[in-house]
Each structure stands twice: as structure tokens, then as C-alpha cells.
Design goal:
The chain is mainly alpha-helical. The chain is built from 5 helices and no strands.
Length: 162
């Protein structure tokens, strides 16, 4: 839980921002579609959104299977003997849970055909990118073997891109 110790104040602020954007991402696109606040996206965007939603499920849920240290907090879990996980989906990208969530954010907005939802999804992606930089800095500084992992798995979020 936030406030349980070890997390930074800046990460806590980012986490709150992500949760607020997440709540808005549930409410605003539905209202947008209902009341027609923005023009509806074309059908092909909605189809792509459904594909992204399905595609995001594998890396998101597999990340929890491969990494039992996964947590909503960015902190080093010394009390649990945390170590670097570099197998499974963590062998392809360093943040597979964020990859899956990103696909869900964008996919859900596209599936609903909501421009406002897509803008919120992009805001959430921005928050995740900021969080990734902070998380990697903390882990490189305090988790043994993480610097080597950064060299082994080059891509943060999108394989062969970033």
C-alpha cells in the first residue's frame, strides 16, 4: 500500500496521477460516446482498439507470473529478498506490465471510438514514461544486478523501439 515505506514522494505523486487518470479513463470516454463531445473515431480504429486490448492482456498478466516482486509501489523489497527478474516477458522488455497497461489504455479508448479517451490514454502513457525513468534510476542504484540487466534487455517498453 502507498505509504508503507521505501517509496519516493515523487513516485507517490505519479501513482496518484495514474490512478486519477485511470478513473477518468473509465468515466470520460463513456460520457464522450454518450453525449458526442468529440467526433467518433472510424470503425477501423475501434477494431484496432479491440486487438490492442486483447494483446495487452498477455504481457500484463504474465508480468505478475514471472515477477513475484511486482508491486504498485516503486521500491526495493529488501524484506522479501528482491532480485532481478530477467526471464519470461522480462527478457523482452524491462516493463512488460506497463506495456500491457499501455495497450489497454489506448485500446480501450480506440474501441469506444473516443477522442477524449485517447487523449487521456496518452496522458497516462506520459505518466508511465516519467515513472519508468524514476523506477530504473532507483533500481539501478539499489538493486544488485540491475545495471547488468539494463545492458542485457535494452528496451524499456516497446520491443526494438524504446
Amino acid at each position: 500500500m502507498p505509504g508503507s515505506g521505501g517509496e519516493s514522494r515523487s513516485d507517490l505523486a505519479i501513482l496518484i496521477g495514474i490512478k486519477l487518470c485511470g478513473l477518468a479513463l473509465i468515466i470520460v470516454p463513456a460520457l464522450d460516446v454518450r453525449f458526442g463531445w468529440t467526433p467518433r473515431l472510424p470503425l477501423w480504429c475501434e477494431v484496432c482498439g479491440g486487438i490492442l486490448l486483447l494483446g495487452g492482456s498477455f504481457p500484463f498478466f504474465r508480468a505478475f507470473t514471472d515477477n513475484t516482486f511486482a508491486s504498485q509501489l516503486v521500491r526495493i523489497q529488501t524484506e522479501r529478498g528482491q532480485h532481478v527478474i530477467d526471464t519470461g516477458v522480462y527478457g523482452f522488455v524491462r516493463h512488460p506490465m506497463y506495456l500491457g497497461a499501455s495497450l489497454w489504455f489506448v485500446g480501450g479508448a480506440l474501441l469506444l471510438g473516443s477522442v477524449s479517451g485517447l487523449l487521456l490514454a496518452l496522458a497516462m502513457l506520459g505518466l508511465l514514461v516519467v515513472r519508468i525513468f524514476g523506477e530504473e534510476k532507483l533500481l539501478a542504484r539499489g538493486l544488485e544486478g540491475y545495471k547488468e540487466y539494463l545492458q542485457k534487455v535494452r528496451y524499456r517498453l516497446i520491443p526494438h523501439v524504446w
